[in-house]
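stage 2 :: seqdesign
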């Protein structure tokens, strides 16, 4: 029987006991886990804020209808597209992204709001969205520090972009209440 040649060491991919492939992207496994867990909280906050913004877009009424309906649509559309980037970063780090209402409720720091039957007045909607955008910022900042300390530049870049967007949204919404 001929002896099988094994692949050169550099071509081998290390595997864990469970058969999954090891990830060696220059970030320690423990750091990747902490960053991914933090990103799960960012994703939950971002999804909850997206859902709340979309809810308010659907249920806004009163004298501010037109301007807020359009503003909320612009914001929820951008937020929806950003969710994918956050989830895909978690996957690149080797972890699954949360993807159910149950998980998002458990991980989010933003409180869910009732739907159309109990829709708040426009100024309460705006205040809740200010609060929600600020909550995303606080959560993202915590994870950014962890990612920065681990040398995870792609996550730092992603979170910096999200911070810039959510700080801007909070400012724009806050200005309506002055």
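stage 2 :: out
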């Amino acid at each position: 029987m001929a002896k099988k040649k094994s692949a050169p060491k550099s071509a081998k991919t290390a595997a864990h006991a469970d058969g999954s492939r090891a990830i060696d992207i220059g970030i320690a496994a423990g750091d990747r886990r902490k960053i991914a867990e933090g990103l799960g909280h960012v994703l939950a906050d971002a999804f909850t804020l997206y859902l709340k913004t979309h809810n308010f877009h659907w249920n806004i009424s009163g004298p501010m209808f037109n301007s807020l309906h359009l503003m909320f649509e612009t914001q929820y559309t951008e937020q929806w597209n950003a969710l994918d980037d956050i989830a895909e970063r978690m996957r690149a780090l080797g972890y699954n992204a949360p993807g159910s209402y149950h998980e998002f409720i458990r991980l989010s720091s933003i409180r869910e709001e009732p739907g159309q039957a109990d829709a708040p007045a426009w100024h309460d909607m705006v205040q809740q969205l200010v609060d929600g955008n600020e909550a995303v910022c606080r959560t993202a900042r915590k994870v950014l520090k962890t990612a920065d300390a681990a040398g995870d530049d792609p996550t730092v870049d992603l979170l910096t972009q999200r911070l810039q967007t959510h700080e801007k949204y909070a400012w724009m919404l806050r200005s309506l209440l002055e």
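stage 3 :: structure notes
- The domain at 28-176 is CATH 1.20.1260.10 (Ferritin).
- The radius of gyration is 21 Å.
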